[in-house]
Amino acid sequence: MSGPGHPAPTLAVPVRRSLLLRLLAVPALVSVCSIAATAWVVVRSTAVAIRQEQGDALADDTRTYDVLVGYAARHRGWEGVGPTVAELGRSTGHRIVLREDGRILADSAPLPDTPYVPPREPTAIVDPLAVDPKLLPTAAHDAGIDPRVAGPSRLSEAERSRLRDTAEEVVRCLRILSGVEAHVGVGPGGRPVVETPDGNPVTGRCAQRALISPWPSERKALRALNALVTNCLARRGLSPVTVRVDGSWRPMDAASAAPAPAKAVRDCVDSSRPEQLRPYVAPAAQLYVSGPADRTATTFLDLSADNKLRIAWSAALVLLVTVAVTAFAGIRLVRPLRRLTLAAQQMEAGDVTARVTVSGGDEIAMLSAAFNAMSRRRERLEAARTEMVSDVAHELRTPLSNIRGWLEAVADGIVAPDEKLVGSVLEEAVLLQHLIEDLQDLSAADAGELRLYVEPLSVADVLAQTAEGHAPRAAAAGVRLEVSAGSELMVTADPVRLRQMVGNLVSNAVRHTPSGGTVSLRAGGEPPAPVGRGPAGAGGAAGGSGDTMASVWIEVADTGSGIAAEHLPHLFDRFWRTEKSRSRRTGGSGLGLAIVRQLVEAHGGTVEARSTVGTGSTFVLRLPGKAALPG
Fold it and tell me: Is pTM, for the whole model, over 0.85?
């Protein structure tokens, strides 16, 4: 319940401890397990087929690229590449398109009346002088130039015939002298070579220098390459070198004091070779490889007996995990709820000491803590109710016993019903009536049925009226009343209730002030210096809206015996007295200050007290100067 002095309760549960988050986590976990199991089955079932498909596709792309690079290495243009592209398309099952500068050079599966729309990026660039090492790693050595590019070093027919004869002589020599079965092969550039079983070069008596020495055609091309390299080094200010047929080099002038750095020579060789070979190869072209338009999609999911069994086990495992997680979450959720239910049943049976164990920090833990707080409050209220019934019975017993005693004495003829007896019985009846009226006021305030009829009031007039009403009693006790309040102080309040509040404080002050003392009533528009607060000082603001002015304070101070500091927190409790031994006739009912607290809080104000033993006590009422109050 929220209202004045009772802020609305809030539930601040950390996100990681939230019960809602945990409940949402259970289906999320089940979903993750299901997805993971399904993905595992699919991956295991399709992994082999996918790897095989990817391997086949990579092999087809590599073979296509290799064939077309070889064609470009041996031809100066793409004019006759159509049959080669068509054959590659038939053997691989893919559509192969070769383009150059937006012009289609060859298409393995042209569609009539349908222009070819190439993808954004080509599959590869076919250039024998810049081989892609990812597609053709064996041909990517020597600055990325395909070894099948012979260019100006291509041997003539006569030179190839003589070199083949020399290679066959080496093969026969190896067979006779070493027992090695070698054979004559053709290198990537068309040059005959001797291929041994171990792949090592031929050495010893069977080696022929003619196999590794440059022939006239090769020497001519080698001279042209050296000229290009020399010019490149000269532009860099470096000494010339002589490039050999195998790509190595040596300084042209052995006595040179500053030989060219190896990196510079390699850069010049790598840039000069493509420059020399470019006129002898086909220009670079874009290669596009894709599936044919009429090719149907296939699935690689093999529902074999093993896969079916794997799916069944996966489903069973997911079901088991789901049941286990759900059961665990359900037990964790139901156990504290059962404890709460049992404690509530105990409380319903009358056990106000029922408590539950609080563990964790989620919503159920907060509910358990709230239940314990409610149980403790109910226990305190029950104890207070029992004590209050006892106090009320005690307070009523004294005047009723006196009235009954006097009446029985009259009935028995012991006492004559004279004026003195009637006055004494009347006094006891008046005291009894005041006690009942006080209890009615407190009951109405507790039930929220206390009616206030507010109007603008002059604080000075209220204090003067109160002092006038208590003047006879104060004079009888030898106590002087003093009033000090400015006529400009105004407050919006119920006049009867305001006089009741101030009157209770004045009555209490006169009762505890010895003869010759003083009770002062003061008021002002500024709050006094902070003082020690009793529990009634925490009253909330009145509900409603309106213009709120500076608060008005009313002080009732006495020069009595004072109140000890340990008693201040209990001043506004019902039936509480600083001295339990005092009788009701001399000490009051113990309800006056409790009524003051209820009334001032109903007006949206507060009450507080300070006291010094041996010096006196001061009670301060604070009320809004002007506010909209509940009616």
Answer: no
